[in-house]
Amino acid sequence: MTCLAFVRPGDLGIRRRSVLAASLAALTPTVRAQPRTAGPLAVLATTGMIGDLVREIGGERVRVDVLMGAGVDPHLYRATREDVAKMLRADVIFYNGLLLEGKLTDAFVRVARAGRPVYAVTELLPEETLIQPDGASGHFDPHVWMDPRAWSRAAELIAATLARHDPDGAAVFERNLRVLLARIAALDAYAEQVLATIPARQRVLVTAHDAFNYFARRYGIEVQGIQGLSTESEAGLRRLQELVELLIERRIPAVFVETSVPDRNVLALVEGAAARGHRVAVGGALFSDAMGAPGTYEATYVGMMDHNVTTIARALGGTAPERGFQNRLGTRR
Ligand code: ZN
Questions:
Q1: Closest Cα partner for 254 from 220, 211, 221?
Q2: Cα of 288 to ligand 1 centre, how many Å?
Q3: Ligand 1 centroid to 74 CA: how many Å?
Q4: pLDDT tens, 60-108?
């Protein structure tokens, strides 16, 4: 199936998951809003994970602006006046959706009303790709990029959408997409291989918030976030105690902080376990909802995932090369 066949034109307006996306779909023109002037397509992406896909697929035919940089938490991010101005200047806007950017709702509606095409990449994916966790009151988990196979479907959607807005670029997008999908598939195969080396008893990933459910589904690892699906909900003392028990019982060697979430809860777990005589290490800082510093390998989707996979495998007693699957961790791009 080619990427262009994957998304039939009508699908973009139908397969939506939220009231917001449905209302944006109604506002988003089915044909291009305005004829584009010459030059690259101006694309605005909310997160680095989306922006990187657009950059890889679009190549020189797009100019990508990313709203949220390294270390920024999308659950809490509020749009500034300048952000809205940037969205209004963009030819196409991609956001994650499924309430990841919960505080940007008003901005998206305003921008869509002004005639800008706004697409929620995860909400356009087939429902079987998505996870609906217990206790999430019917909401889907927005952290889809944590499963490279699912994120590859998002890449296909992005390629198809770019081709709708720049039909002359369709062949280029298709070619770039194939290269990107092959790289993501290689990363996925590496992840499968090294994560399988973690001893069964220790296959538990304890992190700051519930960002790793898709990772868990793909690689058969149990995940326990201290905070829930969004960092908006504070962790209770009871949740911390539960997790200390789990660390002791399963003799889990490491827990992980996240670059876009304060580390106080994770450190409280380490202290709680230490007080009970179980030494737990901080296994490293994972890129959950944001990528690495600009210009580094970790500021690419493949690089951030390589970092996560390698860090997790090594800290939980598995075997993985120190510098990841391409020997590029810790290098500049
Ligand atoms: Zn999150």
A1: 221
A2: 7
A3: 7
A4: 999 999 999 999 999 999 999 999 999 999 999 999 999 999 999 999 9
